[in-house]
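Why does residue order matter? Because the sequence determines the fold. Keep that principle in mind as you read this record.
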Amino acid sequence: MSLSEPAASASSDVETSFRTCPLCEATCGLSIEHRDGVVTRIRGDRDDVFSKGFLCPKGTVLGKFHEDPDRLRTPLIKRDGVHQPASWEEAFTAIADGLVPALDATERDGGAIYLGNPVVHSLDLLLYSPAITMAMGSKKVFSASTVDQRPRELASGLIYGSSFTIPVPDIDRTSTLLLIGANPMVSNGSLATAPDWPGRINALLDRGGSLIVVDPAHTKTAEKATTHLAPIPGSDALLLAAIATELTATGQHRPVDEDRDALETVVAGLEAFTPDSVAAATGLDAAAIRDVATQLAAAERPCVYARLGTTITPFGTTASWLVDIVNALLGALDAPGGAMFAKNPAGSKNTRGLGPFGKEQTLGRRKTQASGMPIELGEHPVAAMAEEIESGNITALVTVAGNPVLSCPDSHRLDAALEGLAFMVSLDCYLNETTRHANVILPSPSHLQKAHFDVAFGNLAIRNVANYSAPIFPLDDNGLAEWDVAARLASVLGGGAGTAQAAAAVDDAIADRLVRAALDSPQCPEGLSEDQIRVAVGNGHGPERLLDLMLRSGPFGDWFGTSDGLSLEALIEQPHGIDLGALKPRIPEVLMTPSGRPEFAHPSLMGDLGRLASLLDGPTDGLRLINRRTLRSNNSWMHNLEILVKGKPRCTMLMHPSDAKTRGLKNGDFATVSSSVGSVEIAVELDDSLRAGVVSIPHGWGHGVEGTALTVAGRNAGVNVNVLTPTAAIDPLSGTSQLTGFEVEVAPS
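Structure:
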């Protein structure tokens, strides 16, 4: 029996299994009670070393998702416009006969792949989807990262030399937290992995700390704030620049000595951005901006943390950079209680001790074919997907666990463009708004049928922890493991067969690369041989072998039995996880820059200040649309579970009463919301805590489309906010679309 196979049991008694919730970045521990293949109860695992029993409503539905009759359990092939069940052999034969010729017809240049958000929550997909990309032989890679977080990754790459090196708030030790464009009381955090954000925020306040929230909406997080500023959407970079200028102008800054020269260069470039000069453009009083700067400077352990509201704007990369500038000026970067760097137990570029220093990071080396959008960190921006298909630059597409028709900008245009593809394959658990266009759909098992380890979030955790979850239930009859499906698909795309033997060969090739990487690591013990590594990890196939290789050669690893440390076996023996300790200062060891110090004054970042100055003229009149998250929703794919969508409709438009009155709208009325690219009709919900001039619509809705098979979601369709999102409005550094703060018109329907 492989580690991927749950132990069989003839008992009808209730069993309890422990696993990490895979539905969002919070990584909460779950205690799952089940009997005869049916989940009977899910609670928070009180013994989990990280979450200590915390659980949000989403984590309780893994059993419902497993049982969902709409979840695909067999491959589908589109015949005469209708998706029909097929065998795995038929599915892979159809891909070989349809997708491979479509790729070869353009010498592989016409192929593209889209990687959805669930990829980073799946051990199988995270480890095996790169094999699909390599086998396709195309450089046209799109991912959900370019929808929301690419500016943060890009800023980190320029400053620290690696996009994985993202500072996270050490919230458990901070005394004053400035939180911009984030609502972790609802979203559970983003690019800052921490269970129980509500409890951690309450603990901050209970120990006498302060919470400063910057958000146009009076969110659940803002309700906890000791200070709340409601700026004009999209002006966060101006606010951060003014705070930085105020800190230095008043002598309240306290940077690390080694960084003073670089920071002085940055501050000199920011001299035009003062609290007074940005007041009109931010919609904030200059005195309020000065007060925030003073609060941060007076704090013993201050920290600035910004998220989605700052990155999905035309200045997302610049705003992300300025967050780190303010933290550095406060002496809060890489300091306990400030913004610190995690050490991934599974290893990453910034834990390998590569040195002495990295190469200089530059922008603008590649651009998309149709309109010249930037291609950074090896990925095309999703804003370019529709036009690349329309122009014939993409003729074949593979989507992996993603629904770009709902989650990407100018959705109607992308929806129509997908119809023009020569061939499309989707690896997904649902027949949804995107996969309905696929010629072949390869199903994924449920979360309870596969192993789990948060490889990606080890780079973002506010505390170093490790937790492995074994599968709880066996695969469905005739089902394949997710890694097996991905490996077979990679084999077929590379001209091979879609068989178990082919998947094993792909798996062996990935393992071989990890073995070589371990032997080449500066941390590799002298005398350790390849044979010793292979004997230590065994020759089984699947993600556990790969994970064991990564853990044992990682920063906490046992190096294949040569020392005490982390291994997969050690994690299996600790079902509630292993606490590896609080974050510690890591500069300069974490850096991969030419200077060996943070490149705060990187030319690509400094060069964007002239464009930022154009905002000082002030905003235009009109309503601005912002996004929002709800606690029971996660992007587009959790709306087919009755327990999460029942009750009061959540896909409504929040609007200030004064804005509604001038447009003849009342609470509950339906309004037509229009942008430069589309319009939707949606119910109005009045909210006097929202900044006037701003309306808010949640993300991820717009179901009920013909050709889908989402029964519950179809009854609770909502509207797709991305119908309104223009593709032309992007952050020119990262290519990320402006998904918030753009102008809309609202009128009675």
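The first strand starts at residue 15 and ends at 20.
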